[in-house]
Amino acid sequence: MSTETGRARPSGRRPGDSGTRDAILTAALTLFAERGYDGSSIRAIATAAGVDPALVRHFFGDKDGLFAAAIGSVTPGLLVVALGDDPAAAGRSLADAYLGMWENPATRPVLLALVRSATTSPAAAHMLREVIGAKLRHVAGLDGVAPDRVALAASQLLGVAVARHVIGLEPVVALSHEELVERVAPGIQRCLTGDG
């Protein structure tokens, strides 16, 4: 079958090695990061991956399933933060690790996809809450910190990241990573422990 442009529409599995599922996940993550959840259709993702949309549905069911799989394929290792034994340095360690993920080309698309999609999709918003809520507290070694304190710290870090990487707020963009961490860390420390 051909499309209006005269090219044959991709169908079934791609030839050669079956990296089809990974190709779909990569295409999905790219489009979710660029367009958000609502702006990314299964058809557009399939086109970017070079497969038929039916194959996307075969692997992932629907767009919610695809979004969860795309984000889930890369989020488990994102939030492993070593805060060490010094509670007085927790704010700096957390700010450095979290804001560093936004600077890293390997993890930035995942975070962009989560943030852009969470503003338009309840499913994506739920996933973002999971990432910055209980999972953050657990993997960062903050199990002993009250959930409201962790939520406030996470909210501040998310706001700084959005200002820098989504909105492009110039005074925040102009700071080096180290300068940004130094300025943000005391507030994060106060949120977590009341110190700082």
UniProtKB/TrEMBL annotation:
<dbReference type="Pfam" id="PF17920">
    <property type="entry name" value="TetR_C_16"/>
</dbReference>
<feature type="region of interest" description="Disordered">
    <location>
        <begin position="1"/>
        <end position="20"/>
    </location>
</feature>
<dbReference type="Pfam" id="PF00440">
    <property type="entry name" value="TetR_N"/>
</dbReference>
<feature type="DNA-binding region" description="H-T-H motif">
    <location>
        <begin position="41"/>
        <end position="60"/>
    </location>
</feature>
<dbReference type="InterPro" id="IPR036271">
    <property type="entry name" value="Tet_transcr_reg_TetR-rel_C_sf"/>
</dbReference>
<feature type="domain" description="HTH tetR-type">
    <location>
        <begin position="18"/>
        <end position="78"/>
    </location>
</feature>
<dbReference type="InterPro" id="IPR041678">
    <property type="entry name" value="TetR_C_16"/>
</dbReference>
<keyword id="KW-0238">DNA-binding</keyword>
<dbReference type="InterPro" id="IPR050109">
    <property type="entry name" value="HTH-type_TetR-like_transc_reg"/>
</dbReference>
<protein>
    <submittedName>
        <fullName>TetR family transcriptional regulator</fullName>
    </submittedName>
</protein>
<dbReference type="InterPro" id="IPR009057">
    <property type="entry name" value="Homeodomain-like_sf"/>
</dbReference>
<dbReference type="InterPro" id="IPR001647">
    <property type="entry name" value="HTH_TetR"/>
</dbReference>
